[in-house]
Amino acid sequence: MTTPLPSPASPAPSASTVRWTPRLWGTLLVLCAAMFLDALDVSMVGVALPSIATDLDLSTSTLQWVVSGYILGYGGLLLLGGRTADLLGRRQVFLVALGVFALASLLGGLVDSGPLLIASRFVKGLSAAFTAPAGLSIITTTFPEGPLRNRALSIYTTCAATGFSMGLVLSGLLTEASWRLTMLLPAPIALLALAAGLKLLPRSARERDHNGYDVPGAILGTASMLLLVYTVVQAPEAGWTSARTLLSFLAVAVLLTVFVLVERRSPGPLIRLGVLRSGSQIRAQLGAMAFFGSYVGFQFLATLYMQSLLGWSALHTALAFLPAGALVAVSSTKVGAIVDRFGTPRLIAVGFALMVVGYVLFLRVDLDPVYAAVILPSMLLIGAACALVFPSLNIQATNGVDDHEQGMVSGLLNTSVQVGGAIFLAVVTAVVTAGAPADPTPQAVLDSYRPGLTVVACVAAAGFLITLTGLRTRRTRPSVVVAQSTLREAEADRVPVRD
Questions:
Q1: How many CB atoms lie within 10 A of CB 496?
Q2: Are residues 380 and 428 in the same domain?
Q3: One domain for residues 349 and 227
Q4: Same-domain pairing of 260 and 274
Q5: How far apart are CA 224 and CA 261, in angstroms?
Q6: pTM of this prediction?
Q7: Contacts (Cβ under 8 Å, ≥6 apart) of 217
Q8: Same domain, residue pair 69 and 157
Q9: First CA to last CA across the chain, in angstroms?
Q10: How far apart are CA 481 and CA 12, in angstroms?
């Protein structure tokens, strides 16, 4: 299919030695389809929530779990999903999880009760927690590091933006007929991708040199992530300073501490902690949290503003967001070549700067906005930021990682994305709720949104500052390689590497 990734001792193949065959394109399209479905599913369900509540007679607290159930399964199991792909084979894990995703989509569109719908959403999140790191690691082990991988990853992330944008528009259209169509639509697409994947995806061997399965690490890591996401999602309702929330956070801290101790002693850890010795890797993980967390908070507030205050329809709101998604879809395929020239830190820094400006400009909104003059500039700046930041974060996180740890790093990156989204959305919600006016006039409600938008801008600014720490003068040697054998780690410890 393509030249395999070189061993650390051999030179990397040049772009001219690897040919983009039809089979290679087919492989990439199958993986892109799964990423497209993940983004499509997330964006479609939001618009359908009011119709779901009416049809199934769900309370607000129950309805939130239609969204939170997916986040819980996805964010809580990504670390396990990534390492499982490394150990059991990326192709096998990807295809099985994609089949489960299709089945859960079908069931979600047919159920007649809230608990069953929430259960189907949890299963969909769980399956996405396995397809996302497995798919990303298939790309990074199929395409050699450098221009080819950068191009593949830019196409891959473009499909996520396209899926999200199409989901916003399709949800507005499909919900007019029935909310069930928004649940059912991913099923046939997933089945087609599954059939194509059985033919096209390269077979991957299981990891041979691991020292058994890290069962204690898997249990502790999964439990800590599930409890963290659950606590953050529930905190705005239970109260951030309530005994329940504080005890849950304490339990998370204990679980994570024990998890770290177990991983340091495990011969085959779920997460090799040496990966986090790389400054570029840490910046990628923190950047992913800031990037997605700020955007999810912004989208939440902007949607409330457009629908609740301006009275726009679901479709009208979706079309307002469309320029950002369209800009990403058009430009992201070019990011690979830009990364080759300027490097990921510069692109991420520029993207975060654009994002901050876009959020600050949105603070100008009022109760009678001129879309082209007030909202559209923010959408275009945020779209340009997403086009630069998202692919660059994926490239930076997976560069320099050995094949047998690509799933682990992919799971770690996706966990950062989901946990960042859950945490900062909860924070923004808490800030807005705390400032809710006693007299809910439209102007007073809009004023209560502004502190939340300020928090969103501050989170993006933090991502910008974190990225700036990686912008330095020309290095005398490449940045640290984050995935080495245990023997190489010991040698690297004796030779300090500037990052």
A1: 8
A2: yes
A3: no
A4: no
A5: 14
A6: 0.77
A7: 259, 262, 263, 266, 269, 270, 271
A8: yes
A9: 35
A10: 14
- Rounded Cα distance between 161 and 42, Å, is 11
Cα distance between residue 152 and residue 348, in whole Å: 18
The first and second tokens of residue 51, run together, are 């119709």
Please, is 249 exposed, middle or buried when counting C-beta atoms within 10 Å of its C-beta (0-12, 13-18, 19+)? middle
Contact 106, 54 (CB under 8 A): no
Task: Write out pLDDT tens, residues 166-197.
Answer: 787 787 788 878 889 989 999 999 999 999 99
Q: Same domain, yes or no, for 340 and 239?
A: no
CA 441 – CA 438 distance, rounded (Å)? 9
Our count of domains for the chain comes to 2
Taking only the tens place, the pLDDT of each residue in 19-52 is: 678 888 889 999 999 988 888 887 788 777 778 8
Token pair in block for residue 136: 């990303």
Question: DSSP letter string over 62-101?
Answer: HHHHHHHHHHHHHHHHHHHHHHHHHHH-HHHHHHHHHHHH
Indicate the burial class of 477 (C-beta count within 10 angstroms; 0-12, 13-18, 19 or more).
exposed
Q: Are 398 and 140 in contact (CB under 8 A)?
A: yes
Instruction: Identify the burial level of 261 via C-beta atoms within 10 angstroms of its C-beta, where 0-12 means exposed, 13-18 middle and 19 or more buried.
Output: exposed
Q: Cα–Cα distance between 316 and 181 in angstroms, integer? A: 19
Q: How far out from the chain centre does Cα 153 lie?
A: 14
Phi, psi of 491 (to 5 degrees): -70, -40
What does the radius of gyration of the chain's CA atoms come to, in whole angstroms?
22
Residue 205: per-residue pLDDT: 58
Q: Give the span between the Cα atoms of 175 and 45, in whole angstroms.
A: 10
Q: Is 194 left (phi over 0), alpha (psi -120 to 50) or beta?
A: alpha
d(CA 312, CA 305): 9
Domain with 275 in it: 21-202+268-494
* Residue segments in the chain with a per-residue pLDDT below the cut of 50: 1-17, 209-210, 473-499
Cβ-count burial of 247 within 10 angstroms (0-12 exposed, 13-18 middle, 19+ buried)?
exposed
The number of beta carbons lying within 10 Å of the beta carbon of residue 67 is 18
Give domain status of residue 207, yes or no.
Answer: no
For residue 387, what is the enclosing H or E element? helix 371-398
Residue 229, CB half-sphere, CA atoms under 13 Å: how many? 28
Render 277-300 in DSSP notation, one character per residue. G-HHHHHHHHHHHHHHHHHHHHHH
Which of 267, 287, 303 is the endpoint of a domain?
A: 267
How is 108-123 classified by DSSP, letter by letter? HTT--SHHHHHHHHHH
